[in-house]
Fold Phosphopantetheine adenylyltransferase.
Amino acid sequence: MKAAIYPGSFDPVTYGHLDIIRRAASVFDELTVSVLNNKVKTPLFSVEERVKILKEATKDLPNVKVESFSGLLVDYAASKDVTVVVRGLRAITDFEYELQNAQTNRKLSGDKLDTMFLTTSLEYAYLSSSSVKEIASFNGDISQCVPPFVARLVYEKFGHAREN
């Protein structure tokens, strides 16, 4: 069985993330979407909330599971006996950052962990969780960025009541 991990903050999950998840799920027998518990960042949603949201957003994908992790990705991947990490790329700036991470992870893993890059579909190339949060903080329309139930939860976090 060929398995992969798609790690990220997913705060919140966007249509861009879901595009990568669907496409990676079609390549691998099993895809684990792994929500990073990053102690450095102050997320909008807790790790538990993000896991719950992702489970709901991917419930139609039988070969996708969602869980959280903390610590080094290489250690997490080794504990799962997974040798492939999936990462999405929107722009050249993403590539520079992701390439460095991929090379570092490969070195730290003793050449056991590879990274597969999927370019984001053009319709989602502009999307980032940060921009979704900024737009929502001003009660702007995020309906083109996230699924309706995610939009509702984001607006609630900012104290906005909106109909989708």
Remarks:
- Helices lie at 15-27, 47-57, 73-80, 92-108, 129-137, 148-157.
- The chain has a mean pLDDT of 94.
